[in-house]
Amino acid sequence: MFIAMNRFKVVKDATAAFEQVWLDRDSHLGEMEGFVEFHLLRGPEAEDHVLYASHTVWRSRADFEAWTRSEQFRKAHGRAPGTRPLYLGHPQFEGFESIQTVARSDAA
């Protein structure tokens, strides 16, 4: 399993607009081999921003890398938000290989 995350420092008065951009987008993730799930996470507030993370789970790093080279990726990232900047700086990418997974066991 591979987890791809981007962290965004969103300007405090732009959080609603930032969230709406994500809710309105056509992600095309479901069209990709190896895609498992996506989460948009809202984190702690700082003095000048709110931290958000996009969190995508893939079957493998190779599946994620195929996504980054795909037409679906270009379509999903081609629509830029309005002229007003919603976040500070560039998103910070972090990629993680899964070492261990512990799942809930429903066996009683």
UniProtKB/TrEMBL annotation:
Keyword terms, alphabetized: Oxidoreductase
Domain ABM: 2-96
Name of the top EC class for this enzyme: oxidoreductase
Signal peptide coordinates: none
EC number per UniProt: 1.14.14.18
Pfam families: ABM
Database matches in Gene3D superfamilies: 3.30.70.100
GO MF terms held by the record: heme oxygenase (decyclizing) activity
InterPro entries assigned: ABM_dom, Dimeric_a/b-barrel, Heme-degrading_MO
Domain of life: Bacteria
Protein name per Swiss-Prot or TrEMBL: Heme oxygenase (Staphylobilin-producing)
Gene name of the encoded protein: isdG
